[in-house]
Amino acid sequence: MQKQENPTYLKAITIRDPSDIHTIKEDIKKEMILILRVTPLAQKDVDKLRKVVEELYTIAKNSNADIARLGEERIIVTPPGVKIWKPDYDLK
Amino acid sequence: MQKQENPTYLKAITIRDPSDIHTIKEDIKKEMILILRVTPLAQKDVDKLRKVVEELYTIAKNSNADIARLGEERIIVTPPGVKIWKPDYDLK
Questions:
Q1: Among A24, A13, A30, A35, which residue's Cα sits nearest to residue A84?
Q2: 0.90 cut: is pTM over it?
Q3: Contacts of residue B82 in chain A, CB cutoff 8 Å?
Q4: What fold is seen in the domain B10-78?
């Protein structure tokens, strides 16, 4: 659970390279809310994108984080204290 | 501040009509994190979009909520306990 005295941060960033996953992992550990734009990587290398997305889902699962797609361009990852509202699993 | 025992919800929805602002206002009061897609309204009526965005900024200000643009398509609104990370005010 997040600390009451500190705000939770929402960070919107772009994944340009698979190596960006390290920083993202740290941010997930810090219980940040992440909105990750994946389109530049998708345009560069679809296989790398697939691996990054799989890794994100694994990290999220292991961190009790919630994860969902936001349209075609982005992925949302939220810490244990924040749940993604999925009325019909369509976030588009 | 949000209650420790209840999760904060992140809700991603599309604004299709200015009347949607009523529900959004309620959600901001409930301290939800909102990701609002504005493109359908932008395509329909740019003036209505401008008014809706102005209203959102006013509601956010009055609710101590944080607000920021996310690319061309979306607007993020966060409750007082969640701050939007703006390293250079460029969330694109």
A1: A35
A2: no
A3: 7-10, 33
A4: Translation Initiation Factor IF3 (3.30.110)
